[in-house]
Amino acid sequence: MGSVSIDNVFKAYGQVEVIKGVSLNINDGEFITLVGPSGCGKSTLLRMISGLEDISYGEIAINKLVVNNLQPKDRDIAMVFQNYALYPHMTVAENMGFAMKLKKVDKVKIQSAVEEAAEILGLQPLLARYPKQLSGGQRQRVAMGRAIVRKPQVFLFDEPLSNLDAKLRVQMRGEIKQLHQTLGITTVYVTHDQIEAMTLADRIVVMNKGLIEQVGTPRELFDKPANRFVANFIGSPAMNFLEGKCEQFGTQTFFTSTSGVRLPLEQQPKISDTTKAVYGIRPEHLKLTSADNGIEVKVNITEDTGSDIIVLGKCGTDQITILLRDREEVAPGDIIHITPLPGESHLFNANSGRRI
Ligand code: ADP
Ligand code: MG
Question: How many whole angstroms from 16 Cα to the centroid of ligand 1?
Answer without folding.
Answer: 10
